[in-house]
Automatic annotation (TrEMBL):
InterPro entries: aa-tRNA-synth_II/BPL/LPL, BPL_LPL_catalytic, LipoylTrfase_LipoateP_Ligase. It catalyses: N(6)-[(R)-lipoyl]-L-lysyl-[glycine-cleavage complex H protein] + L-lysyl-[lipoyl-carrier protein] = L-lysyl-[glycine-cleavage complex H protein] + N(6)-[(R)-lipoyl]-L-lysyl-[lipoyl-carrier protein]; (R)-lipoyl-5'-AMP + L-lysyl-[lipoyl-carrier protein] = N(6)-[(R)-lipoyl]-L-lysyl-[lipoyl-carrier protein] + AMP + 2 H(+). This is Lipoyl amidotransferase LIPT1, mitochondrial. One of its GO terms (molecular function) is lipoyltransferase activity. Gene3D superfamilies: Bira Bifunctional Protein, Domain 2, CO dehydrogenase flavoprotein, C-terminal domain. It comes from Chrysochloris asiatica.
């Protein structure tokens, strides 16, 4: 008996089943195309996690299309302080997300499409997916010169990056996700992906900056909507599946049981900042001492996003050693993150020296150090 087609049927049958139910193959027609109705980066990344963890993709590849409100997305093994301007992001309300896949940092906004290709591990093939995108682009605009590179980027006119790739390979399933720049704010992208922090040393993966360009600059008809439809049509033709794009709500627990807790996990400080590979900061700054300038040196070791060692070197005549050591120890175990500095501020204020002059110096140093977090 053929089961009437509904997305919920598909999901229930594909979840945790080694073999699709009898008749089901005809129903799902060997694959699905989904599009998120949410523009929240954490919710959309949670859909990826959920599909990766729960679905049987044997013979049933899935294409997931999604877009986000302004967000910077770092790779699994990256250091956000090295990759982006966190202060600017906070000021402008740009979200920071750490994805589960490796690779470099990309900027998402509503002018950027994200495409996730889910397959079994054995069917995972990034070049095949990129060729499919190129084919879709050529269908809507045959004059476009787009090539896939060995690094799995897509280049326009041989030099401008329009797509970056990353992937996650699990025990049985895998996904390849990539971006596609249609009409992104390029100037904003550049300023956000420019770290102002000095003196960071780490083994984290570093991004490889490229010149980027929007497809819309080449042809004003190449909007995100047009490109999403074109890729979906190409995908359907390639896999010989129903080309209908199913809209999904990443908050729908009846479709994705447990998904909201996945989205919550992706937003935690422990995941976004705490997963940063250990790193050190060696920096210095000047403070005024009457008419002259004093150099203050700072060395900080950070592990799991928390300060393990903090050494502030100040000329003793300016701030007595015992006061400086007290300040160092206040920073130990605090989260290296400006969002968390309100808590740190209260600790620092509770422990600051009573003496008015010392208090002023203590305060200047605290503000300078918080500025590098
Ligand atoms: N949405 C985007 N689409 C394409 N390129 C982007 C986008 N956002 C930023 N970029 C460019 O890509 C650079 C990062 O590229 P990088 O190769 O390090 O990472 P990636 O493309 O995510 O993945 P991978 O490291 O796996 O290739 C950024 O510095 C910027 O020049």
């Amino acid at each position: 008996m053929l089961i009437p087609f509904s997305l919920k049927n598909c999901f229930q049958l594909l979840c945790n089943r080694k073999v699709p139910a009898a008749g089901f193959k005809d129903t799902v027609k060997n694959g699905l195309i989904l599009q998120s109705i949410s523009n929240d980066v954490y919710q959309n990344l949670a859909v990826e996690d959920w599909i990766h963890d729960h679905m049987n993709l044997e013979g049933n590849p899935i294409l997931f299309l999604w877009r986000n409100s302004p967000s910077v997305v770092i790779g699994r093994h990256q250091n956000p302080w090295q990759e982006c301007n966190l202060n600017l992001m906070r000021k402008e309300g740009v979200k920071l997300a750490r994805r589960r896949s490796g690779g470099g940092t990309v900027y998402h906004d509503m002018g950027n499409i994200n495409l996730t290709f889910f397959t079994t591990k054995s069917k995972y093939d990034r070049m095949e997916n990129l060729k499919l995108i190129v084919q879709a682009l050529n269908t809507v605009q045959p004059q476009l010169d787009v090539q896939a590179t060995k690094r799995f980027d897509l280049l326009l006119d041989g030099q401008f990056k329009i797509s970056g790739t990353a992937s996650k390979i699990g025990r049985t399933t895998a996904y390849h996700h990539c971006t596609l720049l249609c009409n992104t704010d390029g100037a904003f992208l550049s300023s956000l992906l420019n770290s102002p922090y000095q003196g960071i040393k780490s083994n984290a993966t570093t991004s490889i900056p490229s010149l980027v360009k929007n497809l819309l600059e080449k042809d004003s008809t190449l909007t995100c909507e047009v490109l999403m439809s074109a890729v979906a049509a190409e995908y359907a033709a390639y896999h010989r599946i129903d080309g209908h794009i199913h809209l999904v709500d990443p908050e729908d627990e009846t479709l994705f049981p447990g998904i909201n807790s996945k989205a919550k996990d992706l937003q935690t400080w422990e995941w976004v900042y705490g997963k940063t590979p250990k790193f050190t900061v060696n920096t210095s700054f000047n403070v005024l001492d009457g008419q002259s300038c004093l150099e203050i040196k700072v060395h900080i070791d950070i592990k799991n996003g928390r300060i393990q060692i903090c050494n502030i070197e100040v000329p003793e005549h300016w701030l007595p050693l015992e006061v400086c050591e007290k300040l160092n120890s206040c920073f130990i175990d605090s989260k290296f993150c400006p969002v968390e500095t309100t808590m740190l501020t209260s600790i620092l204020l509770r422990t600051c020296p009573q003496d008015h002059e010392l208090y002023k110096k203590w305060y200047i140093l605290c503000e300078k150090i918080k500025g590098i977090m």
